[in-house]
Amino acid sequence: MKRIILAISIALSAFTMHAQVDTTRVLCIGNSFTYFYDSHLKLAEIALSQGHYIDMTAAYVGGYTFNRHLNDLKTIGAIEQFTNPYDCVFLQNQSQVHALYARNPKQHKFQKKDAVDLVGRVRQYSPDARIWIESTWSYPAGNCGGFGTEAEFNRLMVKGTGMLAKAARTDVSPIGEAFRISREERPDIDLFDKDKKHQSAYGTYLKSCINYLMIFGGRFNGNASNCGLDPDSCAYLRSVAERVAASKRH
User: Cα separation of 106 and 170, whole Å?
Assistant: First the structure.
């Protein structure tokens, strides 16, 4: 189990400082679906390549649910820091929770309370922050997370995330939809790590691209960072992220 609570400032060259047009304070709360290949750092790197500086804080512990974050003093400390409030916050739950909630909301009604309480805690200290609950991806491991097929897992994940976001009066980051499209169109770009559950470096890149567009909107310009990955593959993943983000806006 990996645990970390950190604040990150990306070093800027004199040129970048001159070109910098804004600073956005971002908090990412999650678990291994956030820290595999450092999605929060890739988000900051992509943003910087597009002329946006992110002052990043991340709070993640392997396997954590929203409930466990609510009862973790280090996560609460990251939420309640007493400097400047956050501008944007991403909340990433344990990988099966949203699908379980969609399948049986009565049995898993505590998941709704946890989502509402965690979003409420963030709003208490960052009242103007934009908050997204991440809709993560279905995966083949563990009999498709216990849901039998990836299609059913994905359907329930999308439905459950939407239900929880509506209850908490916040937005959805549609990462899982981007994964679905990419895997259908370009199966040669492997979005999974060896366990066929966690994201690969390319899966992390795609997640980071979606979250970038949730914050900044629009499209990527030609200077977008590939984060050390294959440029052609990354260009395709950025195009998927743009399509998914645009469909969400409409």
Answer: 21
**CA-CA distance, 181 to 179, in Å (whole number)?**
6
Predicted confidence (pLDDT) at residue 11 exceeds the cutoff of 60: no
Could you tell me the CATH number of the domain that includes residue 31? 3.40.50.1110
Residues 206 and 244: their CA atoms lie apart, in Å, by 11
The token pair that represents 90 in the structure block: 């991403």
Task: Please name the helix (run of DSSP H) or strand (run of DSSP E) that holds residue 133, with its range, or none.
Answer: strand 130-134
| pTM score over 0.90 | yes
Q: 77 to each of 57, 71, 217, how far by Cα in Å?
A: 11, 11, 29
- Complete edge-to-edge strand list for the sheet that includes strand 3-9: 3-9, 53-61, 23-30, 88-91, 130-134, 171-173
Helix (H, G, I), strand (E, B) or coil at 7: strand
Domain with 127, as residue range(s), is 3-249
pLDDT digits 0-9 by tens, 111-127:
999 999 999 999 999 99
Beta bridge partner(s), residue 3: 61
**Total domains in the fold of the chain:** 1
